[in-house]
Design a protein that fits this description.
This protein is mainly alpha-helical and 138 residues long. The protein has two domains: 85 residues, no CATH class; 42 residues. It is built from four helices and two strands, in the order E-E-H-H-H-H. A two-stranded antiparallel sheet has the order 1-2. Strand 1 and strand 2 form a beta hairpin. The protein is rod-shaped and about 100 Å long.
Length: 138
């Protein structure tokens, strides 16, 4: 994140960042769930589930070289989007009601109504000012 006037800017993860982090954690999950790791090695003649703990850790360390640069960007960006764009009252991903209204085109109606109310307030205030000026002159 970088500091800008009025707040922070969150770096957007690339698709490669997301894929790298996903692949890394899929391997971590496989290792912790099943004690195995499918290592896709283009130089190997066949893929084998018979890998040692040392090979697994070495492979995860190699993958961490890429994932270690990406995971914060992926997780923090997800956090920013969930906190700012999703409906806090549901347990699944759904747009915040005001954003949904905007995306559905209903936002224009709301803005039009607010603009009318603002114009009416300005008109009332202008009349009050004119009345105050007229009272001072008289």
């Amino acid at each position: 994140m970088s500091n800008t006037e009025g707040g922070f800017v969150q770096a957007k993860p690339s698709e490669a960042d997301i894929d790298t982090v996903r692949r890394f954690f899929q391997h971590v999950e496989e290792y912790f769930e099943f004690g195995t790791l499918t290592i896709e090695d283009p130089e190997a003649e066949d893929e084998s589930d018979d890998v040692t703990e040392e090979q697994i850790l070495m492979h995860l360390r190699e993958q961490w070289q890429d994932a270690g640069q990406s995971w914060r960007r992926v997780v923090e960006s997800c956090d920013v989007l969930v906190r700012n764009c999703t409906d806090p009252d549901v347990t699944h991903l759904e747009w915040r009601p005001d954003l949904k209204a905007f995306l559905d085109g209903k936002y224009e109606e709301r803005v039009d109504e607010e603009v009318k109310q603002l114009a009416a307030m300005i008109e009332r205030r202008q009349k009050q000012i004119q009345q105050q000026k007229a009272a001072k002159v008289a």
